[in-house]
TrEMBL record:
Name of protein: 4-oxalomesaconate tautomerase
Domain of life (superkingdom): Bacteria
Record organism: Pseudomonas putida
């Protein structure tokens, strides 16, 4: 594991780790019972990708198609 020896964990049965990357951040939450993993969840932020149609950022769209 890349973060082993670097990440600091708290005490208790529920742990949360925040991971930051160039395009945003995501949080991982794990639930433990007697040291065994019993649950895991992931929340990630991201820009809108689609809403019934594909969303292309204005800065990338010139209206011309390349072949």
């Amino acid at each position: 594991m890349v973060t082993q020896g670097i990440a600091v964990t708290g005490s208790g049965d529920r742990q949360r780790l925040s991971v930051e990357h160039p395009s945003g951040e995501f949080s991982i939450e794990v639930t433990l019972e007697q040291g065994a993993l019993t649950g895991c969840g992931l929340v990630r932020t991201a820009r809108l990708l689609f809403d019934g149609q594909v969303c292309v950022p204005r800065a990338l769209w010139s209206g011309a198609q390349k072949s």
